[in-house]
DNA sequence: TTGTAGGCGTTATCAT
DNA sequence: ATGATAACGCCTACAA
């Protein structure tokens, strides 16, 4: 059972005053060599841990933390993020961290630029954001760096050392997971397809990473598989149906499809009602996908846990401000496999 | 932007002193009706949130939190719990919560009794424990209730209102999940088996719940399935092999097996090396099961996340002590589906 | 270079 | 019934 030592304790032990101990702890200098040595020795011996509560109380600062994410009204994928942000917000407001959320239109770089300017105008202590647009995000991070605003990103990473933290998923791995699942569902079959659906905004890199992982999985097998890539940029259900019909007619042997976006339900709806069902693996627990799980039109979904991503991003920065905690550089969340039977628990 | 109100602020607003405000907040009485009304009104208006940091500093108590779990040396399933406990321990020691762990032999009620007595001798403020043995655990919780020791349980629940919190999984649901997986793997096949393996200590109820869920899933299908239940209590690999051979000979049509314990690898090892592979779904990310995932002898594992269970148990009580947070009654963790491709991320 | 004297917000005690 | 005051541990400013 360890005793809790305070600065006063240490001061007594070293025969000096609290002020001197404090100077040593914070390396403020103006301490004689003798005193310095003595105090450092004691600090090590007792493994001094400062009382974070007292430190925080003294600082008595309130921090402003802003979150900049896509608007869930434009894409329901982001809805759980708001929950995660609210949870974190409630947790940390008692510790003086004030959190506000700004939403931008994920299909418009203009919207991103406008909202990010607003964010900066607020002069926050920290920002958590989704760097959906590469170029614009880089500009943003540079500005933050200059104004010493602490940054964390989630969902997408950005190749910049201006951001302190990234929270997301290993997309290549998640493609492999999808490959493994389809392989299990279709042991004999050798014809598969990767479909990139309806992605108006720029996450082409995301989809490519997933496809690479998917192909990587099958490349590692002894038995060789033929994998077709098909892009469906349309949003209109009739056009999609036409596109799907076309590619199924060209490759009638295809028995399993991996949809690299959250729009697997669109493919499911567009499939012809034949008895030889196409096996389908997609992404994200949005309402329409869940319905397809229930009806059996989608077999597996991969969950990227946007809620947790947002929650962690906000928590990391909050703990950094409130308790001087170190911010983890990278946090890769597990690649959750979802079926009709287990999705409820992931909706929280 | 909300201002942070302090008790001093409220006192000024109400034209009274801090002491009176404090008495109202803590319902200590000895306050005139007039003052009481005025202060309560203000409290509501400004939605007063006490500064938890200051409160904690003032209390300046150190809490003792003991954890009582099975020894990972006897059953590797419990190893991740220690990690979870350590993580929580590091997080909360700065807030004055001291955590210690006691291990018992999961095959011996005597061991449990002995260790739980030790725990009680320590007069802790709170205990997090795994109620593996029903009767003994009840006695334990009653004693804790009497001595006002706050309790949280994980892994197993116990039907007692003496424990404040339970963290675990919906076992019935997890059986359903297993059913869904085997059904996907074996669309045409109609002969399956539930195998209860090598459970020396009492979690028969666990296994039954899982089996019920599994059968429940198939009962809900149009196509009727035949499901055999088989028990293998032996630990010796040769006896197991004999038992497995016996039941496969009796039911040669069985093509999928659901093992309700963490011992699926034992079944995998005992299976004859025939080409028509039996599909296998089991529980828990222990080393030997992971090897079987890699080699393809096990198809899916269900992850019960013991690490997180332990972490949450300790966190809940720590936050309760340190910050007066409410303890959630029940926390059901998601039923994670694990394949050879995604297990690494779950090992942390 | 060193020591001392407040103060952060809350709570407990003591006097009024 | 109420108000003043000290204390929790840390930090800062100022005095020595």
Task: Give the amount of beta strand of chain A, in percent.
Answer: 15-25%
Name the pair of protein chains with the most residues at their interface, and give those residue counts: A-B, 42 and 42 residues
Largest sheet, strands/sense/barrel of chain A: 6 strands, parallel
CATH class of the largest domain in chain A: Alpha Beta
Mean pLDDT of chain A: 90
How would you summarize the topology of this molecule?
The structure is a homodimer of 348-residue chains.
Chain A: H1 7-14, H2 18-25, H3 33-46, H4 52-59, E1 63-70, H5 79-93, E2 97-104, H6 109-121, E3 126-129, H7 134-146, E4 150-154, E5 165-168, H8 171-185, E6 191-197, H9 204-219, E7 226-232, H10 237-250, E8 256-259, H11 264-270, E9 279-283, H12 287-295, E10 300-303, H13 306-323, E11 330-332, E12 336-338, H14 343-346
Parallel strand pairs in A: 1-2, 1-3, 3-4, 4-5, 5-11, 6-7, 6-8, 8-9, 9-10
Antiparallel strand pairs in A: 10-12
Helix pairs in contact in A: 1-2, 1-3, 2-3, 5-13, 8-9, 10-11
Chain B binds a DNA duplex (16 and 16 nucleotides) through helix 1, helix 2 and helix 4.
Structure notes:
- The structure is a homodimer of 348-residue chains.
- The first copy, chain A, has 348 residues and is an alpha/beta fold.
- The first copy, chain A, has 3 domains: 7-50, no CATH class; 58-168 and 306-331, Rossmann fold; 171-303, Rossmann fold.
- The first copy, chain A, is 47% helix and 18% strand.
- Chain A has helices spanning 7-14, 18-25, 33-46, 52-59, 79-93, 109-121, 134-146, 171-185, 204-219, 237-250, 264-270, 287-295, 306-323, 343-346, and strands at residues 63-70, 97-104, 126-129, 150-154, 165-168, 191-197, 226-232, 256-259, 279-283, 300-303, 330-332, 336-338.
- In chain A, the strands form 2 sheets. The first copy, chain A, has a 6-stranded parallel β-sheet, sandwiched between helices. In chain A, strands 7-6-8-9-10-12 form a 6-stranded mixed β-sheet, with helices on both faces.
- The longest helix of chain A is centred in the last third of the chain and has 18 residues, at 306-323.
- The radius of gyration of chain A is 26 Å and the shape is elongated.
- The A-B interface holds A 1-2, 4, 49-54, 56-57, 62, 93-96, 98, 170, 173, 176-177, 179-181, 184-185, 217, 299, 323, 332-342, 345-346 and B 1-2, 4, 49-54, 56-57, 62, 93-96, 98, 170, 173, 176-177, 179-181, 184-185, 217, 299, 323, 332-342, 345-346.
- Chain B binds a DNA duplex (16 and 16 nucleotides) through helix 1, helix 2 and helix 4.
């Amino acid at each position: 059972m360890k005793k809790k030592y305070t600065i006063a304790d240490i001061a007594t032990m070293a025969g000096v005053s609290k002020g001197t101990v404090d100077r040593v702890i914070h390396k403020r200098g103006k301490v004689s060599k003798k005193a310095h040595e003595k105090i450092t020795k004691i600090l090590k011996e007792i493994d001094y841990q400062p009382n974070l509560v007292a430190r925080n109380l003294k600082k008595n600062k309130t921090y402003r933390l802003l979150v900049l994410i896509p608007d869930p009204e434009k894409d329901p994928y982001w809805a759980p993020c708001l929950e995660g942000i609210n949870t974190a917000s409630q947790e940390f407001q008692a510790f003086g961290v004030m959190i506000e959320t700004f939403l931008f239109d994920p299909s418009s770089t203009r919207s991103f630029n406008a909202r990010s300017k607003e964010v900066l105008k607020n002069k926050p202590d920290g920002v958590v954001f989704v760097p959906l647009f590469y170029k614009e995000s880089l500009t943003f991070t540079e500005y933050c760096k200059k104004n010493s605003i602490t940054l964390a990103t989630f969902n997408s990473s950005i190749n910049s050392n201006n951001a302190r933290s990234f929270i997301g998923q290993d997309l290549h791995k998640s493609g492999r997971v999808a490959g493994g699942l389809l392989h299990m569902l279709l042991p004999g079959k050798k014809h598969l397809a990767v479909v990139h659906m309806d992605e108006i905004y720029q996450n082409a890199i995301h989809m490519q990473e997933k496809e690479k992982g998917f192909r990587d999985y099958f490349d590692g097998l002894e038995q060789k598989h033929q994998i077709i890539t098909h892009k469906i940029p349309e949003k209109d259900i009739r056009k999609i149906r036409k596109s799907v019909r076309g590619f199924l007619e060209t490759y009638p042997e295809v028995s399993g499809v991996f949809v690299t976006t959250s729009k697997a339900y669109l493919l499911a709806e567009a499939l012809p009602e034949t008895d030889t069902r196409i096996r389908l693996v997609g992404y994200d627990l949005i309402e329409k996908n869940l319905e397809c799980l229930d009806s059996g039109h989608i077999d597996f979904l991969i969950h990227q846990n946007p809620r947790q991503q947002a929650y962690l991003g906000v928590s990391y920065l909050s703990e950094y401000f409130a308790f001087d905690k170190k911010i983890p550089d990278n946090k890769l969340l597990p690649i959750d496999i979802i079926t009709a039977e287990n999705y409820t628990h992931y909706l929280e």
